[in-house]
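Please decode residue identities from the backbone states below.
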């Protein structure tokens, strides 16, 4: 779904201390973007930043990078982050706009990334578009290069087809599954933080499917 053009988004982002308009300059040194060197998590396709804001606020001991291709939607994310943090400084979030299929252009293989979140990504249901999925084996091969030994991928979706395919992708790519459920909320998982899509789909009575995997040390 396309977001409407927001003329205010880029000017607000440019005034924001945690927006990085030239991410290639930080390749291999993303910890320098933060005030403290801490475990590093990526939120791929962070959208309006509801999940990013809430999970970063709850975990000040972790540095988070949110990535989305749309500058306009990152403008909305900035406002949601500001609302969540209120008057507290935002020291553990960085954001930038980029094509997630080209992550190796902006990240080195020794960044120390310990977790990647893929929340409610585009399911690309037509067979000819499956390679665009953020959980396709081509993308998983990239994530494997970025994750530290023991690093994790946390995936959530409302889409049955994408869930089943992703389960197969993880198996084919040699990841170790430590959570696989067709109804995450029934698990009453205290670690689960809702994204904007998760709120919307849950209100419609739709179940959240989830898979969490790790790279063996």
């Amino acid at each position: 779904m396309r977001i409407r053009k927001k003329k205010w988004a880029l000017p607000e982002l440019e005034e924001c201390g945690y927006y990085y308009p030239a991410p290639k300059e930080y390749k291999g040194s993303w910890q320098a973007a933060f005030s403290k060197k801490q475990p590093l998590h990526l939120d791929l396709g962070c959208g309006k930043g509801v999940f990013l804001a809430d999970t970063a606020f709850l975990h000040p001991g972790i540095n988070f990078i949110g990535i989305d291709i749309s500058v306009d939607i990152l403008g909305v994310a900035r406002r949601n982050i500001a609302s969540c943090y209120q008057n507290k400084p935002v020291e553990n979030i960085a954001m930038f706009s980029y094509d997630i299929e080209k992550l190796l252009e902006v990240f080195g293989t020794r960044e120390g990334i310990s977790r990647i979140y893929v929340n409610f990504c585009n399911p690309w249901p037509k067979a000819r578009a499956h390679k665009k999925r953020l959980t396709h084996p081509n993308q998983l091969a990239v994530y494997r290069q970025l994750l530290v030994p023991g690093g994790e991928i946390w995936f959530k979706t409302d889409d049955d087809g994408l869930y089943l395919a992703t389960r197969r992708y993880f198996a084919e790519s040699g990841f170790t599954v430590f959570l696989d459920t067709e109804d995450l909320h029934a698990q009453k998982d205290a670690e689960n933080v809702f994204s904007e899509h998760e709120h919307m789909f849950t209100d419609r009575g739709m179940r959240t499917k989830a898979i969490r995997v790790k790279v063996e040390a």
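Observation: Strands lie at 40-44, 63-68, 93-97, 113-119, 147-157, 176-181, 209-214.
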